[in-house]
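Quick question: who can interpret this fold?

. . .
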Amino acid sequence: MAYERMLFADAVCHLGAAVAANNFKALPIGAFSNYTLDELERLHQIQAYLKRCIHLGTLPARRWPLYGIEPAPIAPVVGGLMMIEDPGLMVSLADFRVWIETSKVAAPVIWADALSDSIQWDDQPIPGTRVITGKAKGRPLSKLGKLGDNVQAEANEIALRLYELNGEMPTQKTIAARLGTKYSVAWSTAKDRFKVNLCKEYIKQQKQ
């Protein structure tokens, strides 16, 4: 029996963007990933794009127990584009491969293969289905090792870059999301490692 490979939607968005940033090659286990601010911004734009496509139904989403394609749009986006509100949504790798071609994105079809090669797939399908899922083989390590208790200086620079992009003071969540991507942690983990008021003071100092 042929199995259908699916990943949770947030994994497709996060890992899919990381694979794209890795020149559409599978993510090496334990490799250093020290993103520049330009690379980090590119990563987040790809991640946000994938999430919009899932919510609007352009990239089909499925869910247990039937795993049929969900009617579009999936749900209104609440709390910003950098957040998947429905943890039960899944994306088929076969659908992802077709979407690469039909969406006309500037990406090779091997993007789907590289994403699949970055996953340690389960040996057994989800009970009662022929769907198998998995998890990332290994998170790329930051050159700095891991997210420290205080990353104020990095947060300041990220906040400044965000301000330069649109002229608006960035929020704590926006800064934390970019830190989280760099260190492969959730934004909620990164948010306690810096103070957003200090980021705003830093921006004001640079404007003077």
User: Anything to note?
Assistant: The CA atoms of residues 156 and 202 lie 6 Å apart. The chain has two domains: 4-136, 152-207.
